[in-house]
Amino acid sequence: MNRKFRKFIWAGWLTAGLATAMIWSMPAISLGQGTVETGETGDVAQAGDLVVTRPLTREELGPFPDDPAMALDYLIYKRYFEPKKHENKVVYLTIDDGPSHKTAEYLDILESRGVKATFFLLGKQVARYPEATRAIRDRGHKLANHTYTHVYKTVYQSVDVFMEEVERTRAAILETAGVDVRLVRAPGGVYGHFEKSYYRRLEAAGYVNHDWNLDSKDSVMKKATADKIMSHIRAANKDRQVAVVLLHDSGKTSSLEALPQIIDYYLGEGYTFEVLPENETVAVHNILPLREIKAEVEAALRARDAAGQ
User: Fold this and answer.
1) Are residues 62 and 163 in the same domain?
2) Which end of the chain is less congested by CB atoms within 10 angstroms, N or C?
3) Angle at 12 between CA 17 and CA 99, to 5 degrees
4) Backbone conformation region of residue 234, classed left if phi is above 0, alpha if psi is from -120 to 50, else beta
5) Are residues 132 and 211 in the same domain?
6) Cα separations (Å) of 85 from 59, 63, 266, 282?
7) What is the reported pLDDT for 58?
């Protein structure tokens, strides 16, 4: 990477106000012509229109040691089409949109039942409720990234804006709680929002997007009550082996009141509670851009096999 390009990258980060939070084991991908450094030897390989500014190890390059751009897609392919396997019934409680003035009550309920959850936090809420952010950390729960504003028209203007929101939230959580988060959830989910470039930018920057497979409907249900939310969850669960439950810490009393019932239901059904993993996916929304990446990787693997590589 030449000196001029390196200055350009750092100028962009400084403008975004992230210079104090750039210690990150897997920096971001950038658009433009350039090269890719491989992790073990420092060799340089051409990446076409993508510049990956983090080292790719020999293991990550996998079957594409001479094609880092395809190697990146191969990592996405493995991550999202080979999700974490579970031998026993597991439930992941995921709580979005906080922290809020009710976060302490969520934490008390979780502690009273002895379970942990993953909190997907908004950067603007972290700035507003720093003590609640630290309390989530101190109670042993997982902190994760839900962008800064959650405003669709802002967040999804472009992949650049999306990544700026992710990085701004990461910096806010790091400054507030001292935790460098890698887990991301797209506001409103990936349907209708993500293109292939979103997965590529997240992967190159070391982030993992986590979807859900059971929406409690607590944020959209009309005249929601704890009983109505619980009835929906019970009907939607259908004895699934793994449940990634979507809940919200957005100040609604019905969501808070439903939480003890939800926990007791899953405990009674023999589920183990876990927080979402750092490096593996659990629930994946199989949208067209992901399927396109899958098709491209599998075609490249077939071509490689045909060539006897």
Assistant:
1) no
2) C
3) 35
4) alpha
5) yes
6) 21, 23, 19, 8
7) 85
51 with 105, same domain? Answer: no
Q: Is there a contact between 24 and 202 (Cβ–Cβ < 8 Å)?
A: no
Which residues are registered as beta bridge partners of 95?
119, 247
Parent domain of 174: 90-273
Count how many domains the chain has.
Answer: 2
Q: Please give the Cα distance from 236 to 117 (Å, whole number).
A: 20
The vertex-202 CA angle with 58 and 61, nearest 5°, equals: 15
Residue 290 lies in a domain: no
Domain-embedded: residue 307: no
The helix or strand, by DSSP H or E, that contains position 184, with its residue range, turns out to be strand 183-184
Q: Is the peptide bond prior to 99 cis by the omega test (within 30 degrees of 0)?
A: yes
Q: What is the pTM of this model?
A: 0.84
